[in-house]
Amino acid sequence: MAGVTIAGSGGTNSITLDNGQTLALAQQIATAINAAAAGGTLIATNFPGPFIPDNGTNESIIPSTAPSGTFNGPAGFQYLLNAATVPVTVNGAANQTVLAGTGGTTYFGPTGGNQEIILGGGANLVALGAGSTDLVVTGNGNDTVYANGTSTVDAGGGANLVFSGGLGTSTTLDLSSSANSTITGGAGNTTIFGSSSGNTEFLGTGNSVVIEGVGADTINVGAGAATIFGNTGPEVIFGNTGALTFVAGAGPSTVTGGATGLTLFGSAGSDVTYSSTQAGGLYVAGSGNETLNAAGSRGPDTMWAGTGAGSIVAGSGGDIILANTGSLTATGGAGHDVFVFFHGNAGAADLIQNFNTNDLVLLAGYGANGVTASVSGGGNTTLTLSDNTTITFAGLSNVDPNQIVKA
What we know:
Elements (H helix, E strand, L loop, with lengths): L1 E6 L4 E6 L2 H20 L2 E5 L10 E6 L7 E3 L6 E4 L5 E4 L5 E4 L4 E4 L5 E6 L5 E3 L5 E6 L5 E3 L3 E5 L6 E3 L6 E5 L7 E3 L4 E5 L6 E3 L5 E4 L5 E4 L5 E4 L5 E4 L5 E4 L4 E5 L5 E4 L5 E6 L4 E4 L5 E8 L4 E3 L5 E4 L6 E3 L5 E4 L6 E5 L6 E5 L6 E5 L6 E7 L2 E6 L4 E4 L10 E3 L1
Parallel strand pairs: 3-4, 4-6, 5-7, 6-8, 7-9, 8-10, 9-11, 10-12, 11-13, 12-14, 13-15, 14-16, 15-17, 16-18, 17-19, 18-20, 19-21, 20-22, 21-23, 22-24, 23-25, 24-26, 25-27, 26-28, 27-29, 28-30, 29-31, 30-32, 31-33, 32-34, 33-35, 34-36, 35-39, 36-40
Antiparallel strand pairs: 1-2, 37-38, 38-39
């Protein structure tokens, strides 16, 4: 742990902090207060007061010897310093910066105003006020934060509970240092930056944007629209009634669709397992080597292959798989699947597995003479198209020409 020394009433106060982020902010606060003291403009008053603000820099102090209790932040004081070594409760004032150590703070924010709440460690509880604009940065203890207004919350290490705000609010959460935290979304808009360790996120009825870290997170989509950006960590995502857009990262992801159709975007190295018993989905691959396994999907899905080597497994619904310039391995499902190849995506060597009598191949833009050769051997059949694309049907020594549609 590290600490700062800050000028106060008749001496100095020491504040201990247990992580680098809170320490950096505490150092900024200490610099401002100590400069005011050196310049003779600091008005520092210990609780219980009286508190009489002046035109200078006004600092209220809960001293290290203070017992547990409730302290009301005085109006007109820019700073409230909590040096207590025991848990205390602070009723914050508007436009006030609160700096606390590791003793544990329960903070209730004012209605309105612009506040900064820096909590150096310990187990803290923060409840922000309506209509306020707040920055909350916590240490490595297990903290609980109820966001409101327009708030930015940087939850430090520890297993934290964060509740985003209600209708009309905007909450930004930084979980980059958090581990095993639980996030519960509300009716307001929420932006979450993910972590290096596993968190559980329950998104609310407001719109949400989640930018994942490298940790293994579980995300439960709510009734609001959600856009999720994956990373290298394994993600588990459960859809709901809200519209879901997921941009997969390089790590493995498991996505379960909800009542509303979802959109999945692949990326280089992505490995997505997708299932749904309700609405269908749209998958668009990127430029790298990617895998989409939708064998557990019952809805009608549309899946676009990318420009890299891709693997797509269809589900039990009637799926559409569209090839691209990359080499595609496509596995049909139990439904009526359509495999689409576009003229001009030249040279790809594609493989179709589990092509059954319910399936079709659509050669778009090739015309009547799109197939230039058909060769059977080893139990497989390979078609060569006019742009040098090859399509191999695994396990089929003959392909019914009525299943090849030329357009």
